[in-house]
Amino acid sequence: MFERKKIKDTAKYALKGNWSKMFLYFICVSLVSGVTTFLIEIIFGWSIELTQILSIALMVFITYPLSVGVYNAYLIILRGEKVSLNDLGFAFSDRYPVIFTHGIVKVIKIFLWTLLLIVPGIIKAYEYSFTERILIDNPQMSSKEAFIKSREMTKGHKLNLFVLGLSFILWYLLYMVIIIAFAFIWTIIAGVIITLSGSFVIIVILVVFIVVGVTLLSIPLNIYVQGTFSAAYLHIKDQAEINVDYTI
Question: CB count, 10 Å around CB of 114?
């Protein structure tokens, strides 16, 4: 039985005392991604094609593995264990080739299914949603095996996971209201400052401030949502033993 309230309560309970750590982890991922992207734009901005290629490479080789490290931190917290900053670098180990190639294959699979129709793409996104956590829990498992096990684990639960995501809609609406209010107020302030100063540097600083502000405001909600889906993974995992023939 998929107990949505129990899953969300489990996530909230596990995050008690760990919000600051998870916030720090999200900041680390955002900083690495943001600073590197900024440097790519500055250094290679003369070539749109090269900038796009390097941005994709950044996502595949750095941002995605760091995100897997965040999933690892969630699982550690949910199991009642202490988490450290070193856990964020989980993917940067001997498992690195498997993890970053898995990320590429997963994106391609979902993209190809989405080309058929939007709905099949959404279904496959939920079907493959546990693959990273499965790879974390099974160090010897291959990417293909993780896809198989995720398909088995989400069988009969994809609608439950979809509804679980929808249960955060009010939080997302509240977040949008806060963002709009923040952007409106800051636009007025920025307009006054720009009018008085007329400095290009000031304009750049204001834009950076808005981007950073929006990012920081989104982190608490992301922590709660991702923590809940990690709790859902453990909930389903604990409910039944998945017997899969991994013969390739």
Answer: 15
CB 143 within 8 A of CB 101: yes
Tally of structural domains, the chain: 1
Query: Does residue 248 form part of some domain?
Result: no
Residue 34 has pLDDT above 90, yes or no: no
171, two tokens: 């939080």
In whole angstroms, what is the distance from residue 45 CA to residue 72 CA? 35
Residues 94-123: pLDDT tens digits?
889 999 899 999 989 998 998 877 888 899
pLDDT 10s digits, 149-175: 999 999 999 999 999 999 999 999 988
Q: Look at residue 244 and tell me if it is in a domain.
A: no
Domain that holds residue 202: 4-239
Q: What is the mean pLDDT of residues 15-24?
A: 90
b/e 3-30 (16+ beta carbons within 10 angstroms → b)? eeeebbebbeebbeebeebbeebbebbb
Report in angstroms the alpha-carbon separations of 158 from 123, 127, 139, 150: 7, 7, 25, 11
Asked if 25 contacts 88 with a C-beta cutoff of 8 angstroms, the reply is yes
Q: Answer whether 0.85 is exceeded by the pTM.
A: no
